[in-house]
Design brief:
Elements (H helix, E strand, L loop, with lengths): L6 E6 L4 H7 L6 E5 L7 H13 L3 E5 L5 H8 L5 E4 L5 H11 L23 H11 L1 E6 L2 H5 L1 H4 L7 E4 L1 H6 L10 H16 L3 E6 L2 H10 L3 E6 H18 L1
Parallel strand pairs: 1-2, 1-8, 2-3, 3-4, 4-5, 5-6, 6-7, 7-8
Length: 246
């Protein structure tokens, strides 16, 4: 995944390769495959990653947890981009780095006979080095403690992206009801600047077009717009409401 330009994508919680394939025909840059809030299996994930690759889109798998063996199985689907939730401290982030990077950067388990290494043990040293270089790692900071520790988390070597839980950020200052409040916008800006000052990309979710534009104008690098299931419902509900109103 490129580490330079601003990127826009969406979350996918429908367990459907066809839905992923259809979304990948749009101008979105990435698809977050949400393992935590869906029924997706490891086999499903692997086929969803293939669908993204076939369309030239970036697949990112959002893990349901940070357990080492679980992360390994996700990585073996061939995805070179991973987001891990519930990070509250620099120690949490370091633990994840150790799980997803091969030595000397970490202690990830190895089988060469996977998609990651083209099912071969040939040129394995080079393959391991490339895997470490190309593995894009994002962490989701979602709780009050994580928001307080954002500066320390962003200094952990090997973290490429910090994704801010928008509602958690608002809750940390007791303002969960209005995400447009100037105090929340200012806190978003301050948090973004702390993260980016440490050479790490910053992302968050936009619940609508207006908020996506706001995050873009604030200089966020990674903007996840909406969700496939919500978009499907919204389209048909808005359409039938309009039809019945005429």
């Amino acid at each position: 995944m490129s580490k330079s330009k601003q990127r826009f994508g969406t979350w996918c919680s429908l367990n459907s390769v066809n839905a992923i394939d259809a979304i990948c025909t749009t101008d979105l840059d990435f698809i977050v495959i949400d393992e935590e809030h869906s029924s997706v299996s490891f086999e499903d994930m692997e086929n969803m990653v293939r669908a993204c690759e076939a369309r030239g889109k970036q697949a990112i798998i959002r893990s349901s947890n940070d357990e080492k063996q679980h992360l390994l199985r996700i990585l073996e689907t061939g995805s070179n981009a991973l987001m891990v939730p519930h990070v509250s401290s620099a120690e949490d982030a370091k633990k994840i780095i150790n799980s997803v990077k091969y030595p000397p950067l970490g202690n990830r388990g190895l089988s060469p006979y996977t998609r990651q290494h083209n099912f071969s043990d040939k040129n394995l040293t080079e393959s391991l080095s490339k895997a470490n270089d190309k593995q894009y790692l994002g962490v989701l900071v979602e709780g009050d403690e994580g928001i307080k520790n954002i500066a320390e988390i962003s200094k952990v070597e090997g973290i490429d992206l910090i994704y801010i839980g928008l509602f958690d950020l608002a809750k940390s200052i007791g303002m969960s009801d209005n995400l447009e409040d100037p105090k929340i916008i200012e806190l978003l800006k301050e948090t973004k600047e702390i993260i980016q000052s440490n050479g790490v990309k910053v992302g968050s979710m936009a619940k609508d077009v207006s908020y996506a534009k706001r995050l873009s104008n604030l200089g966020f690098d990674f903007i996840a717009f909406y969700n496939d299931a919500a978009a499907l419902k919204s389209f048909f509900q808005d359409s039938i409401s309009s039809i019945k109103a005429d």
